[in-house]
Amino acid sequence: MERNVVMIALFTALIAALGLLPKLTLASGIPITAQSMGFMLAGAILGAKRGALAALLFVVLVAAGLPLLAGGRGGLGVFASPWAGFYYGFPLAAFVTGLVMERWKGGNVGLIAGIAAVIGGIGALYLVAVPYYIIAKPAGLGESLLVVMAPFMPGDLIKAVITGLITGALYKARPSSILSRAGVAA
């Protein structure tokens, strides 16, 4: 139990720290950061429940006013923007990434983590972010896909690959540290 709490807190801190890396702000106003890779890593390494709890704790801390989002943003106001679907989708993204890791038995852990990051960290995240943007903006599906997804896909795919590489290397060095793979033979 104590280890779980520490790991959840550690990954919440990692997600926050990844928001400190230099950001690139698009014309639409949304920044491209490394933070989404934190949710991918949380799910891939911690598993579904712990990864989702790390992401949820991050979202709660942002809602409480801590300036943890890129550019030092935080507070309830960020949840009123058309981009808030990303914030609501972070826990789901970590959960689905972790679930894929837990359920996909055997195989190359790095490759599985990369695929899990694509399915959860990209697919599940946009499954929340795109409809939220459509409702909050309001916008059509075409505009939403063009504004919410298209500019971020190349970077998100790179983050998924990096997630796979990090998870695979960590598994090779210390298999027991990949909690999503506990009890799974490779």
How are the elements arranged and paired?
Blueprint: H1 2-18, E1 24-25, E2 31-32, H2 35-46, H3 48-63, H4 84-103, H5 109-136, H6 141-149, H7 153-173
Antiparallel strand pairs: 1-2
Helix pairs in contact: 1-2, 1-3, 2-3, 2-4, 2-5, 2-7, 3-4, 4-5, 5-6, 5-7
Membrane topology: Multi-pass membrane protein
InterPro entries: BioY
Protein name: Biotin transporter
* CATH fold node name: Arp2/3 complex 21 kDa subunit ARPC3
Please state how the strands of the largest beta sheet are arranged side by side: 1-2
Number of helices: 7
Classified by CATH, the class is Mainly Alpha
Domain module tally:
1
Strand content: under 5%
GO molecular function, one term: biotin transmembrane transporter activity
Family: Belongs to the BioY family.
Keywords: Cell membrane, Membrane, Transmembrane, Transmembrane helix, Transport
Membrane topology: Multi-pass membrane protein
How is this structure best described in words?
The protein is mainly α. It contains seven helices and two strands. The chain has one domain (2-179): Arp2/3 complex 21 kDa subunit ARPC3 (Orthogonal Bundle). It has a two-stranded antiparallel ribbon with strand order 1-2. The model has no long low-confidence stretch (mean pLDDT 92). One of its GO terms (molecular function) is biotin transmembrane transporter activity. This is Biotin transporter.
Give short descriptive properties of this protein.
single chain; 186 residues; mainly alpha; Arp2/3 complex 21 kDa subunit ARPC3; two-stranded antiparallel ribbon; 7 helices; globular; transmembrane helix
